[in-house]
UniProtKB/TrEMBL annotation:
InterPro entries: ATM_plant. This is Telomere-length maintenance and DNA damage repair domain-containing protein. GO terms for molecular function: protein serine/threonine kinase activity. GO terms for biological process: DNA damage response. It comes from Triticum turgidum subsp. durum (Durum wheat).
């Protein structure tokens, strides 16, 4: 069992003016923070910290006092070995002490370091700035403290700004070195990028204005040196960009254009080449964020370039195997990641296609090569007829989000294409193998059903003429017949069967509601006609 005398012995050695007693104190503390002795030692410090009054935390057997003593030991080691040594046992022990103090299973309390949080952040900045080699021990401490809002709110804005700028420069230096082949150099670059991401994700309030320009310049410098995608390092860097845009995008104004000019070449070049689903998802998130910012700044995203990449990506996924989207088959992590990645791609594609439809970009010269010579609308129609899973899913989401803003003649042509795609999918020998395509086709037909069978939103442009109604009714009759005859084939795939029955049931209910409405109109007209005959005649 640890006692106050044991803690006092450790603190006295750490407070010594000589290096040897300090080293002995660090070793002695290490024996108390490891193994079976750790719980009693940590709980003793936690109880004393919880009981002590705010003015008495700087002395006695408390966590703040012990942490402060260790920080002074690190500074003493740096001062004594300014020219040569770059390591300090006290720095590693400070990391261990912070981890133990924050471990509720050991200490039994929370926020034990609240009184020294501000000093700790300033100490971390001072040490890493003057002795970069200590970032191996200090970066984990910084990341751990930042995730606790009560701690980071204690940090001075100037300290936070200086930390962000410092780590931004470290990340830029790592990329400027073209990723040294040494594994340790790559790992160090990743840790710096990781810490930068945690800093950007956990500011002590709003981003300081003085920091914004430094971050913008830092991202521009970093992406100007990236030549290839490099796994988890570039993924973490894209996380930093996305986090910065999410947190501060509306305040950037035209400055977001500068980031995109630096980032777009890397994103568009790596989009189709990377096999990293995590990185692809981050690219999609980046595009969505910039598209939202582009509402106020039309030129922030060169849509024609992104549109070409999106269409090529959808074509690459045309042969997606069954069991990866909306299925009852395997649900391991890899399949789930691919499923989420493709759904994110389809959601982004729906937005991009609608924007291209709403305000098409004229193609001249070299732009024709980037965007293809084929019109986006006809590309969607042709891909629907071919039964491409990702194109069908994209169209489904497009109708769901923007259907009432699309011309009804175009919707009718897409309905016809989906009808052909449904017949093609059901004509295959093995229907189970095309279950994902069937599911997305049925989901798309549900969206068409909401648009055409009954006008729930009373939008005038969705009201069909007599000729259009006749055409659409023919398509729905074909869809009804196809699904009714195919229901026995769906028995092994409950998800497809349920979705088909749900669509058929919805068609019945909507037709029933229309018939009831017609009956009411007929009754009202009859009543008005009777009243008209009873009205007195006027001269």
């Amino acid at each position: 069992m640890a006692t106050a005398r044991d803690v006092e012995e450790v603190v006295q050695k750490l407070a010594s003016d000589r290096a040897r007693p300090r080293d002995e104190g660090v070793k002695l503390l290490g024996t108390w923070l490891q193994g079976d002795r750790a719980p009693t030692f940590c709980r003793l410090l936690a109880r004393n910290t919880a009981r002590a009054k705010p003015g008495h935390l700087a002395s006695g057997a408390t966590w703040p006092f012990l942490i402060t003593a260790l920080a002074k030991c690190v500074l003493a080691d740096i001062a004594a070995k300014r020219r040569g040594a770059t390591r300090s046992a006290a720095a590693g022990m400070l990391r261990a002490a912070v981890r133990c103090a924050e471990d509720a299973r050991l200490s039994g309390h929370s926020l034990l370091l609240i009184s020294v949080a501000k000093q700790l952040f300033s100490h971390i900045l001072e040490v890493i700035k003057d002795a970069p080699s200590f970032q191996l021990e200090y970066s984990p401490i910084l990341r751990q403290l930042l995730t606790v809002k009560e701690y980071r709110y204690q940090m001075k804005p100037r300290t936070y700004s200086n930390l962000v700028v410092l780590y931004m420069k470290k990340v830029a230096t790592g990329f400027d070195a073209n990723f040294s082949n040494q594994a340790s150099s790559k790992e160090e670059s990743f840790r710096c990028t990781w810490t930068l991401h945690v800093l950007l994700e956990n500011p002590p309030g709003d981003y300081p204005d003085t920091m914004r320009e430094e971050v913008l310049n830092g991202f521009c410098a970093i992406f100007s040196h990236i030549r290839r995608e490099d796994g988890k390092l570039t993924s973490k860097l894209m996380e930093c960009v996305n986090t910065f845009l999410l947190m501060d995008g509306p305040n950037l104004g035209d400055k977001s254009v500068e980031i995109h000019k630096a980032v777009q070449d890397f994103v568009l070049r790596s989009w189709l080449m990377t096999r990293d689903l995590r990185l692809k998802s981050l690219f999609i998130t980046y595009a969505k964020i910039q598209l939202k910012l582009a509402r106020a700044i039309p030129k922030v995203l060169e849509r024609k370039n992104l549109l070409g990449v999106i269409m090529d990506d959808l074509d690459q996924n045309v042969n997606t195997e069954a069991g990866l989207l909306w299925c009852e088959a395997s649900r391991d992590a890899k399949d789930m990641s691919l499923r989420c990645s493709l759904e994110e791609l389809m959601d982004l594609s729906a937005t991009i296609f609608y924007q291209a439809y709403k305000s098409p970009t004229p193609m001249r010269g070299d732009d024709e090569k980037k965007l293809k010579t084929e019109d986006v609308i006809s590309r969607i129609t042709n891909s629907l007829k071919k039964g491409s899973l990702c194109w069908i899913g994209t169209t489904c989401l497009l109708i769901h989000k923007y259907g009432y803003r699309v011309d009804k003649s175009l919707l009718i042509s897409w309905l016809q294409a989906c009808c052909q795609s449904l017949k093609s999918a059901l004509s295959k020998a093995n229907v189970i193998r095309s279950q994902d395509s069937l599911l997305w086709i049925i989901r798309a037909l549900k969206e068409f059903s909401a648009m055409f069978i009954v006008n729930t939103r009373e939008e005038s442009h969705c009201l069909l003429t007599k000729g259009e109604m006749s055409t659409v009714e023919g398509y729905w009759q074909d869809i009804w017949n196809s699904l009714i005859h195919a229901l026995p084939l769906f028995s092994p795939t409950a998800l497809v069967a349920d979705s088909a029955l749900n669509l058929l049931g919805g068609m019945i209910m909507r037709i029933k509601s229309i018939l009831q409405l017609c009956q009411k109109i007929h009754g009202t007209c009859k009543l008005l006609n009777n009243r008209h005959h009873r009205m007195p005649s006027f001269p």
